[in-house]
Structure formats: C-alpha cells, structure tokens
Specification:
The protein is an all-alpha fold and about 220 residues long. The protein has one domain. Helices cover about 85% and strands about 0% of the residues. Helix 1 crosses helix 6. The longest helix has 30 residues. The two termini are about 25 Å apart.
Amino acid sequence: MIWRRILIRDLRMSLRQGSDLAMVVMFFVITAALFPFGIGPEPVILARIAAGIVTVCAMLATLLSLDRMFLNDYEDGSLDLMTFTPLPLEAVVLAKVGAHWLLTGLPLIVAAPVLAVLFNLPQDGYATLFAVMVLATPTLSLIGAIGASLTLGARRAGVLVSVLVLPLYIPVLIFAAGAIDAAIMGFPVRPYLLILAALLVAALPLAPWASAAALRQSLN
C-alpha cells in the first residue's frame, strides 16, 4: 500500500538521521528538569504541579519537529509527485502524521513516567498519565500538521507554526492536566479522558482534510 510505504519511508529517513528523535526526548527531559531549580525541591509542591509541567513540556517538545513534517518532501519535489498518486492527499497527510507521532509522541509516552517519578507524582496518577499521553500526543501531531502545511515554504516557518498551533493546543493541555489532577485528588477522570478522546476523534478526519487543502494551495 502507498500509505504504508510513505509511513515507512518517513520513519527510515528520520531514524537514519537520528537527530529529531534525540532532540525531542532531550528537550522534553531537560525542560521539565529545569522547573525544580526555579520552584524549589519541595516534594509536595512538585507533586502538585507535576501534571501541568509534564503536559506543557510534551506540548512544547512536539512543536520542535512540526515545521519539517512536509518540508523535506516539498523541497525535493516528492510532495508534488505524491499528489499524482492514486492515494488521496488526505491519506498522505495521515501517513506523515503517523510517522511524526511514532518519532515524537511515542518516545514522549515512554519518557513521561520517568519525569513523573522525578516530580514525585502520586501513584494514583500514573495510569491516568499514560492514558492522557496516549490520547493527547496523536491529537497534538494532527493539529500540528495543519500549522506545518499552512507555513510550508514560508520564511521562519518554525516560529509561524508555533504561533498558529499553540492556541489550538490549549484545550488538549487543559483537559490533559485536569485528568491527572483529578486522579491525584481522587475525583473521576472519565469525563476528562472522554473529552480528550473526542478531540482525537474530531481531529482524525478534520486535520488531514484541512492540512491537505493547505498543501494544495502551497503546491499551486
């Protein structure tokens, strides 16, 4: 299948370089590790803000490689060729989003519990943290694809992507941090997780459609 070939191709190219994967994980860990130096090492305070710090750092780490989601294919002409394949451009976008999530979102899911330990997150929050990361990171990649396609070929695309995408990330951030806080305080987390799942379900068809429309505009 063409969709699978595009996904594998993007994974191989990124893993061959190796810099994006290491950069995302290192940024995630280092940024989160800076907070105790500014706030202080008090375990109670760190446990209280652990949910917000982990989710915000994950969101910022996702932004790092968004501007390169389509850039390499755009510069070498591969993106133009993909528009002539029988595969709809929306499916091409979905394949690239899948590769981006595997290279950024999946490592963040693995690294998040380690950071949670450093921030003294109560044990009641670990299962919710995992569920939140599984639901939130694909949504971040899908929304990010819209910003990456809108700024394709623009100067300082990385800055523009951040400006466009960060406001759209706020609902995901609010409900992700709220779910972890609710788990820590003993409140029901199901409503938060359902809203995060609804955001993912909504972004799954809408984001590729919007991103494909922006790509067509850029390629014309």
